[in-house]
# Entry
Amino acid sequence: MSEVILVARLTAKPGREAEVEAMYHSLLVPTHAEVGCELYALHRVKDNPAQFVVIEKWASMDALKGHAASAHMAVAKAAIEETLVGPWELIFLDAILGGDPAKGTL
# Structure
């Protein structure tokens, strides 16, 4: 199977930004330890502190499915829903190779 690159975008309800950041921050260590996790990086949008972006790279779709079914994600999903404006926006990407491979793909 081929690797999976995913960008997840989410927006916190007004006043709930710190809760969203803390919840996602708590997922970093256990997610990084998962089999197949190649990248799981949390970012905040500079001009919109309520919006967060998680950039993910998984060895396979099975690895991503394992992450989605993990105990720490189940806890996070249950806790985070009430803090968000709406559902996560999930964007799956295919790399377009060119130039220096080390700089042109995740």
Summary: The mean pLDDT is 94.
